[in-house]
Amino acid sequence: MAVKNVELGDLTNKNINQLKLLNSTILPISYDEKFYLNLLTNGFMTKLAFFNDVVVGAVSCRIDPPSDGCETSSLYIMTLGVLAPYRNLGIGKKLIEHLDTYCKSNKFSKIFLHVQVGSEAIEWYKKQNFQTESLITNYYRHIEPADCYSMSKTITPTTTTETNTTTSK
Amino acid sequence: MAPTLSSKDQNALKNIAKLFDDKKYKKGLKTCETFLKTHPENVDALCFKALLVYHLEKRDEAFDLAKNIIKSNMSSSVAWHTYGFLYRSDKNYAEASKCFKNAHKFNKESTQILRDLSNIQLYQRDLQGLKETYTALLQLGATQKAYWVGLIITNHLMGNKKTALHVLDEFLNVMEEKEKTGLKGSELTLYRCMLLTELGEYDKAIEMLVKEEKNILDKLWAKQKHGEILILKNNKQDAEKIFRELLKLNSDNLTIHKKIWECRGIPDFTKDNFDHSTLTEEQIKFLTSFYKDLNNTYPKSLLIQKVPLMFTQDREQFTQFLSKYINHFLAKGIPSLFNNLKGLYNNATKVEIIENTFKATLESLEKKSTFPNQEEQQSPSSVLWTLYYLAQHFDKLNNYEQSLSYIDQGIKHTPTCLDLYIIKAKLFKHQGNISGAFQEYNRARQLDLADRYLNTKTVKYALRNDDPVTAEEIYSLIKDESQPLWYNIGEFQVMWYEKELGSAYLRAGNYGKALKAFYLVDKHFTEFMEDQFDFHNHITKKMTLRSYIEFLRWEDGVFQNKPFTDSAKLLVQSYLHLKNNSHVLNKLKREEPIVATPVVSTTASSADDDDEDDKPAANTNKKAAANKNKSETAATPAPSAAIPPDTDPNGEKYLKEENYLVPATKFIEQLLKFTPTDVQVHALACQVFLQEKKYLLVLKSVLKLKELGGVEGPLYHQYLITLLHTAQADKECSELILKALEKEKNALTGGASLAEYNQQFANKHKDSVPHKYVAGLMMNLISPADKSKATELILDLQGSGAHWEQSFNNYQSLHSAFDSTVAEQYRQQCEKRFPRANCFAPKQE
């Protein structure tokens, strides 16, 4: 199936309840009101995936500023999900691709996330070029199993802008 | 006569006129009074003073001034003209017209007076007077196009079409050639064609269309008109040729399709409740091949695929057409599929095929993600839209459980699809579960707070759910913050809000506010009438006389529009409730804050408030006023000075009416005039006229009920018997009326007594709930001794024709028509019969 009918859109204070509904349908963890309010502020980035004008998937990230271990900012995926009937259509992939582009254009070095041990998402993230970094025990408080993997993907700062300018010349 | 003024004084007068035109009324008045000190008798200045005072909102003082000027200047044209202005601003058009006529009498040369008079006459449809005015105007200025046009239109409206044509031709003769080109020329030609057609001069009309083809700009209209005239001439072959050519320009124009059917003598089978079995074999044969050809030529046209669904009777063929049609909608996720197929639901066979097709489609999609007997993979949302359709299908068939099950499956599949909640809300509404419907709309609304449709729908259902407070809270999110609710809905003519708000108050027994809300709708329709004033002067600039005539004809029937008839009926109901001290059924869900009647305060700012003084002028031009308010709020957040305080927040002035039947009669008469085929109107007319003992008028509506609903109709039965019973018991009823009634009775009952006839009626319709209800009511009326038998009939809700909404109305009337005990029993029966209709839930005290 093609993904031609999928478009990405922004999160606003008008449609935020769709994200809540989507996450509560897909994810095992429930997030509180404060979590969602934060998403609308600077330092966070959310994209909704619309299939024929209906929200069917979303990704929400936190932007981590440069720190001791890392010289540039990085993107931490807090939630990512697609409604069950709409999986395997490349919608999740499209969301990840958007993050890649976002990182490249903002010169971010890495995307990382945590995923529950035993989740089928692990394989999926691997397909999107994420690598397992480490096992963290007792990461989750309210769900079983409580362990998770930390996964990440390094963004190679391609010289897209430069190549563009050269070709245009 | 006043002495001639010096040039200095003349300039002073001009200055006053300018200040008036610039709406600087306060300054104008000051200058005017200074002038009057030296010239206390000057009529012009006195007249300006009256006008200025009126615009400073001192109406009575202005009228006194004007009257005094006339007393001492009986033959002053200016004085009469001014008096007329005041009446016109006061919307007393009859008096204004009289004053303008007097003004004309004393100044026959003034075209301004005549033009002002003509506006009023057209508004009042005083066509004879209007004709005289335009004739006089033409004598004063034969080169003025506006007067010619006025005379033509007047004759046309009077039905003097020959004269209209004659004047039009005269006008075309005196017009300069260069003016007859371009848009104006084209419009005049087409208007002439309209006149010729209305005169039955078909050949001349066609001849002109052909001859002037090059100069006509609205070619589509001209061509369609050509075809229509050919149909009128009964030359259907040539007509069909023309319409087929028009189809090439737009194959999706249903009107053109209908014209082609008409050429073949095929009735309009797209109408609601059309019985498709009345189409002949020959007609179906033509349609089948016609649409087969069209489909080959325009394979993408959805209309061409939809029409065959209506006329095709052959099972197999229908199934085939249906599958193709629905697959397109389901694959693309177009929500309007059900609306497109709704028209097929009066045919049981087609309904069955639709149900089977959708079920098979759902199964196939769920199993292999393809449509039945197809290979192509479909997107997951096609399952969703199939579920969405099936939910609507079973709702239409009144199968609540199935519908709910499909809609819930849909929500499980894609919980973020807002359309599903809307369908769920509609399902709840059809079952009478209004609070459930509100919740679903609100759920959808919260998922997309920027959606205006969902916001307004939710507000509407909050009102239907007897909750004006919540409604206002939600509505406040989309309305201008600085405007109070009542001001906003009145200013923006939000008639749905006014109707639902009034209805909520009516149910809660708050008649003052109910009437206040319904009267707003009435006011808007007066505003629509007054909109006419804006067009008269504009129309001669563009010469769009065709549209103008159509517009004036539409204005003549403006009170036929549903928002008006709905609110007028509710107004009559409110007055009947007030008159009869009806039982109040509902409480508002949330208590409203108590508003004290505010003391009218004069505007606080006194410095230079010339800009704020233009209120009456702004009122006459709604759009300007609305725009103005908008721009003002954009600039300053609280322009509360521009919004007049609500002096009657609870609508108390409407309750002070001495006799509630007087306004009720006024509205009933208007309704009878404009919507004479509305059954509810006649039922209400019977109630009002019975109370007024106007038995002949009751009989008139009773006979109309017979005509509209048949001899066996419950309403005819109810009101005829009530009328007979009431009139016979009324000692003051005249012999003549009693005789007329007796005649109607004997024709119906064949000499049997009313009680016997009522019993027969009950026996005959023992499977119909509405009939049993009426029979019970009448039994109690005729023979109170049979009360228990009557009660039995009323409480028997088994059988056909029962609807929760009608039953709710019955429940309300039972309190007065019967007694509260029976009403309570009736409520309990309704609660069992309509378990989901929450209006029958026991009242919580």
From TrEMBL, chain A:
One of its GO terms (cellular component) is NatA complex. This is N-acetyltransferase domain-containing protein. Residues 6-156 form the N-acetyltransferase domain. The keyword NADP does not apply. It comes from the Eukaryota. Pfam families: Acetyltransf_1. The keyword Transferase applies. One of its GO terms (biological process) is mitotic sister chromatid cohesion. Keywords: Acyltransferase, Transferase. GO terms for molecular function: acyltransferase activity, transferring groups other than amino-acyl groups. InterPro entries: Acyl_CoA_acyltransferase, GNAT_dom, N-term/lysine_N-AcTrnsfr.
Automatic annotation (TrEMBL), chain B:
TPR repeats lie at residues 77-110. Residues 599-652 are annotated as: Disordered. One of its GO terms (cellular component) is cytoplasm. It holds the Pfam family NatA_aux_su. Keywords: Repeat, TPR repeat. Residues 617-645 have a biased composition (Low complexity). InterPro entries: NatA_aux_su, TPR-like_helical_dom_sf, TPR_rpt. This is Tetratricopeptide-like helical domain-containing protein.
